[in-house]
Design a protein that fits this description.
Helix content: 55-70%
Structural class: mainly alpha
Largest sheet: none
Strand content: under 5%
Radius of gyration: 39 Å
Shape: elongated
Order of helices and strands: HHHHHHH
């Protein structure tokens, strides 16, 4: 009689314990974590990236402006020093460098356009009709000389580029060089690397 009652109590007890939700077990501090401990350098870089992440849009815009300002400062220094790493994209590469050296190594009529234009403008303001006609002819003469000189430079430069850089993309190199001829030598950026008369 006692035996059967104890069996029923045990069965009821096991049923109650099975129905009761299990309590979460606390992890022993000495037990393994189940994941490797990160290296100190990785943890520090992760903390730095979290710290450097902007908190709001205003801060992000401010950081972007500062980065852009720093890049522009580097580009200005590179244009003055000729450092290829920080030059703008339009000035980078061996093709553009050769085009610059090709132009800088010779006299170009176009580089004297601004001083000549100022002189002709002053002369054209004279009251004499004859002087005005001379200034008009001078205007036409300067423009014709610039066109002829630019055509000659373009033909010679294109030939040299094809010979030196047969596998490179030459697109835009000739107009880039012709635009450089319109600037006075001391105002050109990047600064000229070759003297007049030197072969690039």
């Amino acid at each position: 009689m006692f035996r059967s009652r104890s069996k029923e109590e045990q069965a009821a007890l096991t049923k109650v314990t099975a129905d009761r939700p299990q309590q979460p077990q606390t992890r022993d501090p000495q037990a393994p974590k189940g994941r490797p401990t990160p290296k100190r350098s990785a943890a520090q870089s992760q903390r730095r990236s979290v710290a450097s992440t902007p908190m709001n849009r205003k801060e992000a815009a401010k950081r972007q402006r500062e980065a852009r300002r720093a890049d522009l400062a580097k580009q200005r220094e590179a244009l003055a020093s000729g450092d290829e790493r920080y030059l703008p994209a339009r000035d980078k590469g061996p093709v553009r460098r050769f085009a610059r050296d090709f132009v800088d190594s010779r006299f170009c009529v176009a580089e004297f356009f601004l001083p000549l234009a100022v002189v002709i403008l002053v002369v054209s303001m004279m009251p004499s009709l004859q002087v005005k006609n001379i200034s008009l002819i001078a205007w036409l003469g300067v423009i014709v000389m610039i066109v002829i000189d630019s055509i000659g430079i373009a033909i010679r430069l294109k030939k040299q580029l094809k010979a030196r850089f047969p596998k490179e993309n030459l697109r835009g190199a000739v107009p880039y060089a012709l635009m450089r001829t319109l600037q006075m030598r001391r105002l050109r950026l990047p600064k000229p690397r070759v003297k007049r008369g030197e072969r690039p």
